[in-house]
Structure formats: C-alpha cells, structure tokens
Amino acid sequence: YSDGGFLFTGELDFKHYLAKVDASGNLLWYQSYDIDGYANKIVETAQHDILLGGTIMYSNGQVGITKTDPSGNIIWTQEYESLLHIINFSENPNGTIHLIVTGYHKILDDQGNVLVDNFLSLSTPDYHKAYFLDDGVISVRNSSMYKIDYEGNFLWEKKHNYQVGTYHPFDIFQTTDGGFVIGGNVSQNPFTDAFVLKTDNLGDVYKNEFSGTVKWDENEDCISEINEHLLNGWIVSATRVGKTFSTLSDENGYYFLPLDTGIFELTVTPPNILWSVCQNNTSFDYSSINNKD
Question: How many CB atoms lie within 10 A of CB 113?
Fold first, then answer.
C-alpha cells in the first residue's frame, strides 16, 4: 500500500476478506464480507481506495469486483459472468477500470458498470497473463500477444509460433528498453520445453537476420569480387509493410540486420551524391525463420 503497509486477501469460510498490516506486519484492520467465493486480486486506486477482485459464485462461474474505502468499508460491489476467473485488473489513467477475465477484456466505469466488453475466446486462466502500461495493457494468451488501449480498442496482435505445440505463458515483464520478456513452457505430448521470448515494444521478435557487405564495384559489373574495397558508413535498410529496419556498414563494409517475419525490400543508400548503387530495391521473403547473407 502507498503508506508502506500491506494488504492481503483470500477466503475464510467461503467468504471474501480483506486485511491491512503496517510495515512491521502488525494488524491494522480486518474486514470480512458476505460475498461467497474467494478473492485473489487487490489494486490500490489513485484516490487510495481499494479494488478487491475474485470469484463470487464459483459453481456458476461468476467473478466480481468490490470497491472499498482505505479502511475496507464497501463502496460498491459488481458481479460479472465469466466461465472461469479474473486474470488481472487495474485502474486506468482516465479513472475507468480494465478488467481481464477468462475470454474477455472489459472496460468498467468508476462504479464498476461495463462500458466495453471485448470477447477474445476462451483460454485456460493460468495461461493468460497481462501487463498494464500507461497507454494500455499487454496481454499474452497461449502463443498470441496483443495490446488493447484503455478505451477497449485492439491496437495490435502478434503470433509467436516458433515451435510446434501448445504455448503456456506463465508471466510477462517489461524490460528497460521498452520491450517485453515472456516466460513459460510449450508442450507437445509427451514432451514439455521451457521457453523465454524477448520482444520489442510492438511485440515483434527478431528471429531472422540479414547480413552482408557493401563494396566498391570497381569493374562496374555488379559482381562482388574478393579484392574490391569495402565501404564504411552506407545505410542499409530492410522495409516491410509498417516497419523499416536500418543499420550502417562498418569499417569492414559489414552490415547486420535483425529482423522479424515478412516480405522485405532491401535498400542501400550511399553517403553522398557522388556515389550510386549498382543493384538496389531487392526483395526477399522472411515468411518464416531464416538467416540470409
């Protein structure tokens, strides 16, 4: 909690409860609620109220959120239909609540009423994880990764099927470069392998690479020869729909581009107008994982 204490919740006699302790673990208060089921998620709001989430009636597959004041007194309780349980939820910067339950992303108003209800498709809850950002939420569900803004709009979705089998993401974290790391396992009977996946901020994974050298074509025959001079500082770009990857050739004329999948067009740009390019705008297809030189 923002004052240095801790909140914890759970189930006691099949009822939700909420308790707060100070930084030394001393009990400050305890509240029990006449709500059947168990609670397993807690969020502190910007106004220091508390959002408590969990299963309401497990037999009927309902989940719910209860909002309390800083002392645990109920402000409101709302129930929502779901086949399993809450994956995660958070207060959005605009004051709404982003609730992720099995198969759905829901946007709630500040009273818990549903504003947006996006159906995703059903998924085992342990294999659906979410990470909240300032401008939206990143969700990973099986081999899919997607971003939804706080109005409920889908911004993008990426598929990461790099190995045959069923993907089970266990957790997701944002890295210092703005990208994400996803960990879990992928199973293909009778075997199960662990995996770690690193993406950029748009969910792209650089599993492909393109490398080569830029040379001075002294014979002007567009044929690479061993004794031709290597050129430093030339821009090499690979462009697909929606994204361009670029690098510079080094002092040995060498360039290396990490890429994701797609159909790319390779372009080489000279450092000034005194130079021209022998062969340019070459297309190549990285519809799957490859290494090309």
Answer: 11
Tens digits of residue pLDDT in 85-134:
677 888 887 788 888 877 677 889 989 998 888 766 555 555 678 888 88
HSE value, Cβ hemisphere, 13 Å, CA-based, for 168: 10
Counting other chains too, the contacts that 171-177 makes at CB distance below 8 Å and 24 or more residues apart are 171/129, 172/129, 172/130, 172/131, 172/138, 172/140, 173/131, 174/131, 174/133, 174/138
pTM of the predicted protein model: 0.61
**CA atoms of 154 and 145, how far apart (whole Å):** 11
Q: How many CB atoms lie within 10 A of CB 220?
A: 7
- For residues 51 and 91, is the Cβ–Cβ distance under 8 A? yes
Distance CA 113, CA 96 (A): 10
CA distance 142 to 133: 20
Kindly state the DSSP code that residue 229 receives in the 8-state scheme.
P
Q: Please provide the DSSP assignment of 137-170 as one string.
A: EEEEETTEEEEE-TTS-EEEEEE---SSSEEEEE
Cis peptide bond prior to 190, omega within 30° of 0: yes
How many other CB atoms are there within 10 angstroms of residue 289's CB atom?
12
Burial category of 15 from C-beta neighbours within 10 Å (exposed 0-12, middle 13-18, buried 19 and up): middle
35 phi/psi in degrees, rounded to 5: -125, 115
Cα–Cα distance measured from residue 100 to residue 111, given in angstroms and rounded to the nearest whole number = 17
pLDDT tens-place string over residues 25-40: 999 999 999 888 788 8
Are 115 and 152 in contact, with CB atoms under 8 Å apart? yes
Place of tokens 């239909």: 81
